[in-house]
């Protein structure tokens, strides 16, 4: 195993601040991005539905979340981190996660890093069912990394189908599934000097990943809006690794809740956490970050956004914010995966500017031409920035604005974090 560090060139980006003006009611045109909508080949377990979980408490009017969408000019920097899996063994390199607890540890600086590690997970009989709880659907620095190896990554809980057939002869052992992951970040140009307000993590071994988007409105009262997201992801990484070392199932919801109760700085954040348990992809998503499952170059499943109102997403945060939701409001999913699938997870800086079909096409093309997941994440991240700075682009954000009764055209300049994971069998080449 080895770590590869590389510097990504900074870029100049500017756009006029979004102006939302009331518009007469009109039916939005373009791709259907309604909550729970899916697109893709038949038989991809995309028809599963999510039942309602605990409702969040009523929230008072204005919130720091309503301040999202500011724009400006300046240098933007990107950094990447990857976890590349080989063999059937489980090994990982440290230092690849951007979830650290201070400005010095933030990966938004002009020098980016890329790390590689490996892990495996024994495949179960995943059925692609969605979990039994869900929320309301509204809308690291550079340097060398050391690596270590071990054998026998823990397996996830058996699916409903597997439990139903438990009375018969035991099935033959399935070949281990592997998850190769890489991430890329581009801060908003005006926030690049402090590393932006997004964060991500890849666990060690890399069987869990996550992204978080700090709510920018906290900056208006002198609070670093990215501090909460970074500390939340740092704690999520630690909790995921603790669950893995204990040999128990890797539950994204458990990781989210444990990290939430440990994060005690001011701020709030949206969050999306995923884990690979055998042949089942598990996810907990709260707010307008999210993920898609790509199969055969098409988006087979897209997680719906959670918003109280337009541009006002669900968020977890410190008690003094007075407007935070509870982790129990997160939407939870279980999806069956197979070799060749690609998972794309990102903050709203990605999904406000790139349609699921576009994201699927880009990562599938990158994979087909031999790019690793970190390279695919970087390509998609830069594509999102290009769209964000196009004032004439009919973006997903502009369609959402129109549906909410506002006239808005163009992309939405924001922090962008993209995390790409390739699913393969043990020993298979990317």
From TrEMBL:
PROSITE patterns per the UniProt record, alphabetical: PPM_2
Keywords noted in UniProt: Hydrolase, Magnesium, Manganese, Metal-binding, Protein phosphatase
InterPro entries according to UniProt: PPM-type-like_dom_sf, PPM-type_phosphatase-like_dom, PPTC7
UniProt entry tagged with the keyword Hydrolase: yes
CC cofactor: Mg(2+); Mn(2+)
Enzyme class: hydrolase
Keyword Signal: no
Residue ranges of every copy of the PPM-type phosphatase domain listed in the record: 180-423
Record field: compositional bias (Low complexity): 1-18, 68-92, 108-124, 145-167
Composition-biased stretches (Gly residues): 125-144
Record field: catalytic activity: O-phospho-L-seryl-[protein] + H2O = L-seryl-[protein] + phosphate; O-phospho-L-threonyl-[protein] + H2O = L-threonyl-[protein] + phosphate
EC number, UniProt record: 3.1.3.16
Region (Disordered): 1-191
Top-level taxon in the UniProt lineage: Eukaryota
Family: Belongs to the PP2C family.
Protein name: Protein phosphatase
Provenance organism: Monoraphidium neglectum
Organism phylogeny: Eukaryota, Viridiplantae, Chlorophyta, core chlorophytes, Chlorophyceae
């Amino acid at each position: 195993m080895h770590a590869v560090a590389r510097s990504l060139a900074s870029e100049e980006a500017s756009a006029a601040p979004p102006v939302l003006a009331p518009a007469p009611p009109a039916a939005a045109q373009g791709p259907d991005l309604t909550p729970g909508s899916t697109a893709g080949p038949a038989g991809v377990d995309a028809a599963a539905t999510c039942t309602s979980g605990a409702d969040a408490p009523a929230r008072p009017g204005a919130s720091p979340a309503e301040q999202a969408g500011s724009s400006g000019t300046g240098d933007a920097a990107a950094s990447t981190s990857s976890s590349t899996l080989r063999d059937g063994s489980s090994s990982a390199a440290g230092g690849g996660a951007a979830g650290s607890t201070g400005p010095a540890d933030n990966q938004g600086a002009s020098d980016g890093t890329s790390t590689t590690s490996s892990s495996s997970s024994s495949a179960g009989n995943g059925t692609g069912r969605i979990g039994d709880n869900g929320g309301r659907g509204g809308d690291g620095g550079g340097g060398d990394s050391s690596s270590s190896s071990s054998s026998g990554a823990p397996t996830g809980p058996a699916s409903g189908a597997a439990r139903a057939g438990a009375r018969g002869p035991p099935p033959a052992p399935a070949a281990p599934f592997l998850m190769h992951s890489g991430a890329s970040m581009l801060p908003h140009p005006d926030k690049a000097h402090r590393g932006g307000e997004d964060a991500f993590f890849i666990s060690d071994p890399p069987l869990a990943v996550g992204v978080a988007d700090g709510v920018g409105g906290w900056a208006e009262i002198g609070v670093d809006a990215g501090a909460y997201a970074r500390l939340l992801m740092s704690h999520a990484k630690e909790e995921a690794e603790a669950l893995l070392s204990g040999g128990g199932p890797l539950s994204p919801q458990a990781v989210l809740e444990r990290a939430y109760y440990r994060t005690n700085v001011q701020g709030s954040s949206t969050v999306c956490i995923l884990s690979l348990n055998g042949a089942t992809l598990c996810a907990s998503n709260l707010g307008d970050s999210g993920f898609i499952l790509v199969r055969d170059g098409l988006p087979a499943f897209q997680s719906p956004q959670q918003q109280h109102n337009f541009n006002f997403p669900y968020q977890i945060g410190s008690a003094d914010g007075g407007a935070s939701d509870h982790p129990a409001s997160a939407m939870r999913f279980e999806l069956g995966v197979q070799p060749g699938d690609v998972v794309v997870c990102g903050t709203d800086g990605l999904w406000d500017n790139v349609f699921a079909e576009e994201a699927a096409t880009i990562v599938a093309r990158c994979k087909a031409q031999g790019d690793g997941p970190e390279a695919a994440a970087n390509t998609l991240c830069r594509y999102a920035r290009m769209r964000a700075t196009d004032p004439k682009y009919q973006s997903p954000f502009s369609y959402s604005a129109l549906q909410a009764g506002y006239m808005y055209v163009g992309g939405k300049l924001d922090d962008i974090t993209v995390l790409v994971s390739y699913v393969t069998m043990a020993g298979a080449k990317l």
